[in-house]
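Supplementary Methods, section 5.1.

A reviewer requested that the exact input to the structure prediction be made available. We therefore reproduce it here, unchanged from the version used in the analyses.
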Amino acid sequence: MPERQPETASPFSALSTGQKSVLYNRAAELFSDNKRTLFDRLAPLRTRHISVVLEDIYQSHNAAAVLRSCDCFGVQDVHVVEANNPFNPAGDVAVGSSKWVDYYRYPSIGEVYRHLHAKGYRIVATLPHENDTMIGDLDISQPTALVFGTELTGLTQEAIAGADAYVKIPMYGFTESFNISVCAALSLFSLTERMRRDTTLAWQLSDDDLLDLKLHWAMQAIRDGEKVMQNLMQSL
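The structure derived from this sequence is encoded cell-by-cell as follows.
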C-alpha cells in the first residue's frame, strides 16, 4: 500500500460507515470478483493489536521480508524510522506485500514512540536484556509494538531506553542472533497465534476501520485508483 502519514487522516475519514459501504460496493464493480472475495475474507483477519517498528533497516531484502511476514501474519501496520537509512521495501522478496500493508515513516525513534504511546501501545524492544521476557511469555493484553533494530548494530540506546519492555527468542546454538527478518517472522508467528486464540482480546478492526482498510485496498486494485475513488466519492 502506498506510504501513509502518521498524523494524516484517511481520505475516507469524513464518510459515515454507511457511506463507506456504498463507496466500497461501487468500487468493487471495477475489479474482479476474485479480488473482492479475497478482500472480504482477509480484511477481518487483519490486526493493529500487534504492530512492528523498524529502526534504520538498510538492506532492502530485509525490509521487504519483514513486510511480507507482516502481510502473511495479518499485521497491518509497520512504523519505519529513517534516521540514517531510507526504507526501501521494493523487490521480488516482498512479492507485492507492500500493496496491502500500511507503512509509516518517521525521522527519529523518539517520534514513533510518542506516536505509539499516544495510541495506547506498549513498546517492546527485541533484544536480550536484564529485564527481558521470552517471546512465548510476553504479555499482549494491550496493543503491542515490537521494535527491531538495524542489521549490524541492533537497536540504538535511545530505542532501548524508551521501550516499555524487552523480549527475546530462545536460541540453542553458537550463533548469537537471528537475522532481523527471521527474528521478525518468528516473533510475529508466536504473538499472532496466541492473540488469535485469546478470546479476551479485541484484536480485530472495528467495522468502520474494516471498511476503511478495504477502500484503501480497492485503490490498489483499480487503475488510477486514487483518482477513481475521488470521483466516486463526489457522487455519494
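Residues 207-236 form one domain. These observations are discussed further in the main text.
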